[in-house]
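Question: I have long wanted to understand how a fold can be written as tokens. Here is the record:
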Amino acid sequence: MTENKKIAVLCNYELLPERVGGMDYFFLAFDKKCAANNIQVDWFFPNQSDHGEYATLTIFESGFQSVENHFLSFCTTNATAYTHIITHFVELCTPFFYKIKQFSVAKIIAVDHNPRPLSGYPLKKRIEKRIKGVLFSRYIAVFVGVSDYTRLELIKEFGFQIGEKSIVILNGLDNRKFKKKLNFEFNNKFIVASHLRRDKGIQDLIVAVKYLTDNHEYDFLIDIYGSGYFEMELKKMIEDYSLQKFFDFKGSVANLNEIYCNYDYLIHPSHGETFCYSVVESLMCDLPVITTKEQGNILELVEDNKNGFLFEVCQVNQLKEILVKILNNDSRISNCSAVNKSVNDITLTSMVDHYLALVLENKS
């Protein structure tokens, strides 16, 4: 019977009204689906917020504490019998999961969203992860990877003993919210949409633009949406190379789903992804994508010269050549709406249903 289910969802994910993305939509949709099935959900976030429909959620903010420590403290002072505990953006296989099991019989479902370093973890880190896998993986009932790549990395990192309890649930989006690109006449406008971190590879794009404009005059603009710790470094690079007229930082916005269609291409020179929302979102809008062959194209949705262009990670000259061909009208994507229909299967409904099924199943 579902009426006795009670879930705690721990999310090391700051709620920001200016950044409403795929996971926000999932949190809200999952809460609604659980309520419809008589399942109570307590949400543990770093902060409280009432933007959008977050006011309808039962949220406990951790404030100055980590979400994990706040949850442990909360459970020692609140007589709360959770049947399931789900973690998002929380480090896996740590003593935290052992500590939960000292007072709770809840089924723990741990979801991994974290990208891996391009060159892999150093030896010391790999050994630490394998040891933690041996010690603490037993307390996690299900490991969820958001792509096949993520699931395989989880097993490689924490040990083959988690193989049988590791599954894939793709992130999903409500494709009805994404405005389709109808006009493919080239307007010299590119978009970057990502967290501003080193591993997103935007520094490679800046260098590629420097090479591109060293000896030729081009007229184009790259709008960068997002925020993050690497923003000032990126701006300094642009200033040092005198490329200000080619880049515009737009900050975080909540309506990317409506503005992708105003651009000619998404550029995503990523060094590592687990799912890559911006690539999926762009393709849902029929916006062609320029990204790295394996890292940015983690779901293999981009087909070279059909719905985008691919280049090897960190190879700025390859990226430069793609931009040269586009700007010179030697190679352009005129319409990508007929390519790779599987992008339309990555739905929010499917994502919510898969997580609900984990809660409803009787296996411990």
